[in-house]
Amino acid sequence: MKFPIYLDNAATTPMDLKVLDEMLPYFLENFGNASSNSHVYGWTAAEAVDIARQQVAELIGAHPSEIIFTSGATESINLAIKGVFENYKEKGNHIITCVTEHRAALDTCEWIENTGGEVTYLPVDSEGLINLAELENAITSKTVLISIMYANNETGTIQPVQEISELARKHGILFFTDATQAVGKILIDVNEDGIDMLSLSAHKLYGPKGIGALYVRRKNPKVNISSQIHGGGHEKNMRSGTLNVPGIVGLGKACEICMMELGSEPGAIAVLRNVLERELLAINGTRLNGNLENRLPNITNISFENVNGEALLLDICREIAVSRGSACSSVTTKPSHVLKALGLNDNLALSSFRFSLGRFTTLSQIEHAANTIRTIVENHRNSTR
Ligand SMILES: Cc1ncc(COP(=O)(O)O)c(C=O)c1O
Known about the structure:
Number of strands: 12
Oligomer: single chain
Bound molecules: pyridoxal-5'-phosphate
Number of domains: 2
Structural class: alpha/beta
Order of helices and strands: EHHEHEHEHEHEEEHHEEHEHHEH
CATH topology of the largest domain: Aspartate Aminotransferase, domain 2
Distance between the termini: 34 Å
Shape: globular
């Protein structure tokens, strides 16, 4: 068994070797610029991009022309929120989001506030769900966008996306969802879900880092967003810059594999997640964070009472790679804003861990991890008695 055991797939996933194989020729012999339309090098690259666009679209039930390639979910989120804010200024300047969003969305909303916009941050209940009545009450004649994530990156809790989109439609407001953690883990259909924009990222679904996409609805309604990166007018003028062809090919292949695996992989991962969860919750003084019914199959978030979270993490990380909070904020010792929003106090939030499983997680890894954590937690509690 390789140590530390990797249970941090929500931070990033290892690449699937099939993805790497697909990408390699586009670093080497097929190195062309997808915008070079006067020779075969360019045509080959453009053809690969077309195939990838189709593969990404298929995974979320979109049309290929609705896929805009970006450098990852952070950029997609910035493009969606700022792009709508700037383009729909005539209509209004109000955006509704939620306190448990990823920092990429929260920081973008803060930027919106600093540039004259208004943002309402909806609270969540103790399981991380927004209240639909509160959402509807927050809507004003100036509201242009509802931005609520599909599934939370720390707890896996899935928001009532279809109900949110129905409210958005009823009031003629656009709906953007950050589905970075959900795409490839559960079945998503942008039309059935009534989503107008959606962000995704390759490195969360066994693809490479530094490539992602934004889905932008082309009809019913047609969404228009202002570009945030200006240049050669690539990606229908929404995102300029020479296309990252190997990355795009990798994202496409990763989506194709997820599409093939969606029927069985999530169920198999949930079985392992449940084994881990059952074992950990059997330890005294533990509790589960998030909603039990509506959640991703691969994440569980568990609090350990009466331990020092920092010291516990130091011992655990030698054997198991897990995280407190999200990867981008786990270097700070600040308690997670998500867990605090669920009502946890600072201490408990700091001694809560996210365990996220993936395609390559095995039962023996899970059994070893559960035993190791039990021993470490009990040792910590005994040593402080
Ligand atoms: C929910 C969510 N949104 C956005 C991001 C940012 O993704 P990227 O690393 O592709 O910028 C992440 C990654 O941590 C995430 O989990």
